[in-house]
Design goal:
The complex is a heterodimer of chains A (320) and B (274). Chain A has 320 residues and is an alpha/beta fold. Chain A is 40% helix and 21% strand. Chain A folds into two domains: 169 residues, Rossmann fold (3-Layer(aba) Sandwich), CATH 3.40.50; 130 residues, Rossmann fold. In chain A, the strands form three sheets. Chain A has a seven-stranded mixed beta sheet with strand order 3-2-4-5-7-6-12, with helices on both faces. In chain A, helix 1 runs parallel beside helix 7. The longest helix of chain A is centred in the C-terminal third of the chain and has 16 residues. The radius of gyration of chain A is 19 Å and the shape is globular. With 274 residues, chain B is α/β, with parallel strands linked by helices. Chain B is built from ten helices and seven strands. In chain B, the strands form two sheets. In chain B, strands 1-2-3-7-6 form a five-stranded parallel beta sheet, with helices on both faces. A two-stranded antiparallel ribbon of chain B has the order 4-5. Chain B is globular, with a radius of gyration of 17 Å. The two termini of chain B are 25 Å apart. Chains A and B meet through helix 3 and helix 5 of A and helix 5 and helix 6 of B.
């Protein structure tokens, strides 16, 4: 088992902002397009450091997405980030045609994803973004598990990936635990805990609770494999198929609708290649609501305890 | 790239004929707007734009962004006449495996396409990004963006117009194909656009109106635009849908229709006799 050192609490949006700032220092072609909530999505650092490369577009996300495409046509490396409900969903058609159909290297940030957005409630909690973006051709989709990984994923999106990239991140400060030495390889999942009885595949904010759940399960004599699916597209089929073969059942956990999300993406791989019993934890076909993030995570079952509970249930199915 | 008005008119005539031929061959597509825009396209590609058909990726070229992808037939016909690819290829329009997609799609490899587009309301935003990119690099390449009048009902066009005005993008030139018609009928009946000049002015643009089917007027207007401005510029080009074929001129039912082979022969005959 990997023993992660908890470095503290830090929002993945902060890691994204640090990645963009570092990218801006490395390469003059990096430009940022803002849609009024610059600081909120972690881009104020870049805007202050490179005002000549920061372009405010106001509260007009459809235009901002097209403007990003225009910059990319001219060889710039544009970053456009706003809340995921606006970047992935309001500007959905601009993302589809101007960015993805043209296969342009635009880095799109989807901030405030998931239920843990908290008191702002359903309108601002993106729970459907992955279902949409992962269906688009040409795009790469990242969903990093902590701030350290968000920074690395951002740098990878800026300088390693060629076409469109969507990076999903959250609002709340969450455990920052991956060591700075842990390499981020696009499309290659990370097995954080080797296990033999079942596999828990988690993404984003749910990776830490998955690790915690594996400890609970371990105390019950259950050996759980924990996989961090930080790249939703292209999906790491090899690791998923290996998990199905070696552990015989898979539990997925995500802060997203069950319909079309990460769990669905995993299921697509499993049913085609090596069908095993699966359970999925996520939002079950409802909108979010107001509340404190921890209250909401509990209400919607996105906790280590509920992951462990579902794991035990899944194991029964596997053994029957 | 100075061409006489008479020469330009001849090119426009041939562009129209090949639009009709390619649409008749395709069996579907947008004839009305394509014929109406033949003069504007001729002016752009044979008298205005800096471009090189033998080196389509030449960095110094002006950029032409076609926001209304549905007038692809006149765009393709113009590109072929300008030497980007052989005229005969126009007859593959809309067919399986063709580089001439129903709406321009770059990934199919046709030279001369800057942007895959066709979902309305997106081209001007991309043009704003391009113009800002050129400015950042200290370059003075011009960006021309062709919009339809019906397209102006898309709110995103006005988001882009606001941004262009805000950033004083004086190397950005928008052209609005003001034929007054859209699929359901008159633009003013479907969703009123007037007063159009005042709308653009209010968004910080310099506005010119002209007869988009009059080659002399187009030549004069684009010559004037070249003198520059401190603002983004828009040309509201009044065109006639179906221009050149008297029986279909101004008939909105020809927005998204292709001629039969027999109709095509008659239409071409008429254009040849003008």
């Amino acid at each position: 088992m990997n023993h992660f050192q908890l470095k503290g609490l830090k929002a993945t949006r902060t890691g994204f902002g640090e990645g963009v700032l570092e990218g801006g220092r490395k390469n003059n072609n990096v430009v940022v397009i803002g849609a009024d909530i610059t600081a909120s999505v972690g881009l104020d650092g870049f805007a202050k450091a490179f005002p000549e490369r920061f372009f405010s577009m106001g509260i007009a996300e459809q235009n901002a997405m097209g403007v990003a495409a225009g910059f990319a046509l001219e060889g710039k490396i544009p970053v456009f980030a706003t809340y995921a409900v606006f970047s992935a969903l309001r500007a959905a058609d601009q993302l589809r045609i101007s960015v993805c159909y043209n296969n342009l290297h635009v880095v799109i940030g989807g901030a405030h994803a998931g239920i843990s957005v908290g008191p702002d409630g359903a309108t601002h909690q993106a729970l459907e973004d992955l279902a949409y973006v992962r269906a688009l051709p040409n795009i790469t989709v990242f969903s990093p598990c902590d701030a350290t990984q968000a920074c690395k994923a951002t740098l990878s999106a800026l300088f390693e990936i060629k076409g469109p990239v969507y990076i999903r991140f959250g609002r709340e400060a969450v455990p920052d635990f991956t060591p700075s030495t842990l390499e981020f390889i696009p499309g290659k999942t990370q097995v954080f805990n080797e296990g033999t009885d079942l596999s828990i595949i988690a993404t984003g904010h749910l990776v830490w609770p998955a690790i915690e759940a594996s400890k609970i399960l371990s105390s019950q004599g259950i050996s759980a494999r924990v996989i961090n699916l930080h790249t939703i597209k292209p999906i790491d089929e090899e690791t998923i198929i290996r998990a199905a073969k070696e552990t015989g059942c898979i539990l997925t956990a995500e802060e997203h609708q069950l319909h079309g999300g990460m769990g669905s993406a995993v299921a697509e791989v499993v049913v085609k290649n090596y069908p095993v019993p699966m359970e999925m934890i996520g939002i079950d076909d409802s909108f979010g609501e107001s509340g404190q993030p921890d209250e909401l995570m509990k209400k919607f079952g996105l906790t280590a305890e509920n992951i462990a509970l579902n794991a035990a249930h899944l194991l029964k199915r596997k053994n029957n | 790239m100075e061409n006489s008005i008479e020469h330009l008119r001849n090119i426009a005539r041939s562009i129209r004929i090949w639009v009709i031929k390619s649409l008749a061959e395709a069996g579907s597509g947008h004839l009305g707007g394509s014929l109406g825009l033949a003069d504007v396209f001729t002016m752009l590609y044979f008298n205005v734009l800096k471009h090189d058909s033998q080196n389509p990726a030449w960095p110094g070229r002006d950029r032409f962004i076609l926001s209304i992808g549905h007038v692809a037939p006149v765009f393709y016909s113009t590109l072929a006449h300008a030497g980007y690819f052989p005229l005969e290829e126009l007859l593959t329009l809309r067919k399986l495996g063709s580089r001439l997609q129903g709406h321009p799609g770059k990934e199919h490899g046709l030279p001369g396409i800057e942007l895959s587009a066709g979902s309305l309301g997106q081209g001007l935003s991309v043009s704003v990004g391009l113009s800002l990119g050129f400015r950042l690099d200290g370059l003075d390449n011009k960006v021309y963006c062709l919009l339809g009048d019906g397209e102006l009902q898309e709110g995103s066009v006005w988001e882009a117009a606001m941004a262009a005005g805000h950033y004083h993008l004086n190397h950005l030139i928008a052209i609005v194909d003001r034929n007054g018609l859209q699929i359901d009928g008159s633009t003013e009946k479907v969703m009123r656009l007037e007063p159009l000049r005042q709308k653009w002015e209010a968004f910080g643009w310099e506005v010119t109106e002209c007869d988009g089917n009059n080659m002399e007027e187009l030549s004069f207007i684009f010559g004037k635009l070249a003198q520059g401005s401190s603002k983004p510029q828009v040309v509201i080009a009044k065109t006639v849908m179906g221009k050149g074929v008297s029986t279909i001129e101004g008939d909105y039912r020809w927005h998204g229709k292709a001629p039969t082979r027999a109709e095509a022969e008659r239409f071409i005959e008429e254009i040849l006799n003008i």
